[in-house]
Write a structure and sequence with these properties.
With 282 residues, this protein is mostly helical. It has one domain: MetI-like fold (Orthogonal Bundle), CATH 1.10.3720.10. The protein is built from 10 helices and no strands. The termini are far apart. 27% of the residues are buried.
Length: 282
């Protein structure tokens, strides 16, 4: 008896297709997108710096400090510690007031959105005070609380709490009624409905409210520090104006912008992770 054997072809690894190649393609595509975004950002900054330099050359340093003068002034303020102290002071006030606004605003928003009686009781006050800018209360805050930290923190809290409350309540009232009825018909109690239906649906609104509140907090802190502070970015801007140091003014303004950008990016990263945990595509 004889046997005939044939050599089966040796399978070759896939090089450009199949499930194994997809993650690599996704990584490459993500890298290309990241590089393209970084390139656009860099180009935008360079164009902005060029326009700034041209305007500074036209109007003179007494009205508009050039990029070089601003960098030099930033080094001067950083060297004696003034810039760092100002950043820390303003950041501390913003984060404390903003955090308190979220801690208070979210529960109130949940109650306002869920319970009609609470909404009817609080809505007149919410609608009244949300149209009064925090700057209008700066003088009263100083008279009532002094020029210490409390007055600035309270003003930031006032800025944040109404924004967060309104966004949270809007999220609660936007929850699909059919989901609530279905959960109730299956025997879910109020706490279970809140945890499993209302909160997941409201989280995007809360996140949006938190980001909006952070942006508005930067508007408030400048006014508060100009009136009632010896340290902080608002105080730095006002003091620089009194000394005729336009370059210092620009340092304070640009630092505020950079600080706000960084805080918003951090919030955005946290928001993406939180929203994904609740099944929200971002």
């Amino acid at each position: 008896m004889s046997f005939t054997t044939t050599d089966a072809p040796t399978p070759m690894p896939a090089t450009g297709s199949g499930p194994e190649a997809r993650p690599r393609r996704a990584v490459r595509a993500g890298t290309r997108r990241g590089l393209r975004t970084a390139g656009v950002y860099t180009l935008s900054v360079l164009v902005g710096l060029g326009i700034w330099q041209l305007l500074a050359m036209k109007y003179g340093s007494s009205l508009l400090a050039s990029p070089k003068e601003t960098v030099s002034a930033a080094g001067e303020l950083a060297g004696d510690g003034t810039l760092l102290k100002s950043v820390i002071a303003s950041s501390r006030r913003i984060l404390i007031g903003w955090g308190l606004g979220i801690v208070v605003g979210v529960p109130i928003g949940l109650l306002v959105g869920q319970i009609k009686t609470v909404r009817q009781l609080l809505e007149p006050y919410i609608e009244f005070f949300r149209f009064i800018p925090p700057v209008a209360f700066v003088t009263l805050a100083v008279v009532w609380l002094g020029i210490g930290e409390a007055s600035k923190v309270v003003l930031i809290f006032y800025t944040a709490v109404f924004i967060v409350t309104l966004n949270t309540s809007a999220g609660v009232m936007a929850v699909n009624e059919s989901k609530l009825r279905a959960a109730a018909s299956l025997g879910a109690n109020r706490r279970q409905i809140l945890q499993r239906i209302v909160l997941p649906s409201t989280v995007p609104y809360i996140v949006t409210g938190a980001r909006l509140a952070m942006g508005n907090s930067f508007l408030t802190i400048v006014s508060a520090e100009i009136v009632a502070s010896q340290v902080g970015l608002g105080s730095l801007i006002w003091t620089s104006r009194n000394y005729g140091r336009i370059d210092w003014v620009f340092v304070g303004i640009i630092t505020l912008g950079i600080l706000g950008f960084v805080y918003d990016r951090v919030l955005r990263i946290i928001a993406v992770r939180v929203l994904r945990n609740y099944g929200v595509k971002v």
